[in-house]
Amino acid sequence: MQEGSGVEARTGVDDALEALGLRVHRPAPGEWGVTVPCAGWPLHVGLRAATGLLRVQAEVAPPGAIDPAWLLHHNRRDLLLVRYASSSFGAVWVQGELPLEAATEARVDELLGRLLEAAEDARAGAVWPPPAA
């Protein structure tokens, strides 16, 4: 097996998810899904190891629930390793990446923690239900 092939990273992901005690869904090799509580609702987090990166993402809020200016301000100022994004329909996501070679148990745990913290902050400022367009 080649050095840096990502096998170590996938082991780091598995180790981190196991250490957190999360129920893990594995839809394909190099892909994981977990659900964690977040601001009173479940947060469904997807993880994928591909193209040299471990990518994580979760939908945080439906279209119209969070002011886009708030998202831009907090992307610039308050986030490390993760960022806010929106779909073409306006749903808000939080996502982040790590290089596969850096995806140790500790770094994956940090990335997931930052993703959850960003999701909680966004949901705390969201309007529920979102205003009608």
Structure description:
With 133 residues, this protein is α+β, with helices and mostly antiparallel strands. It has a single domain, classed as Yope Regulator, Chain: A (2-Layer Sandwich). Helices cover 33% and strands 30% of the residues. The chain is built from three helices and five strands; from the N terminus they run αβββαββα. The protein has helices at 7-20, 68-77, 105-124, and strands spanning 31-38, 41-50, 53-61, 82-86, 92-99. α1 packs across α3 (105-124). The protein is globular and about 45 Å long.
Question: What does this entry show, briefly?
Answer:
By secondary structure, this protein is α+β, with helices and mostly antiparallel strands.
- Put simply, the count of helices is 3
Percent range for β-strand residues: 25-35%
User: What oligomerization state is this entry in?
Assistant: single chain
> Could you please say which CATH topology applies here?
Yope Regulator, Chain: A
Give the termini distance in whole angstroms: 53 Å
Q: What summary fits the major beta sheet?
A: 5 strands, antiparallel
Structural class: alpha+beta
Count of distinct structural domains: 1
Overall number of strands = 5
Helix content: 25-40%
What low-confidence regions span 5 or more consecutive residues with pLDDT below 50? none
**Tell me, what's the shape?**
globular
- Rg (CA only): 15 Å
SSE series = HEEEHEEH
CATH class: Alpha Beta
User: Per CATH, which architecture?
Assistant: 2-Layer Sandwich
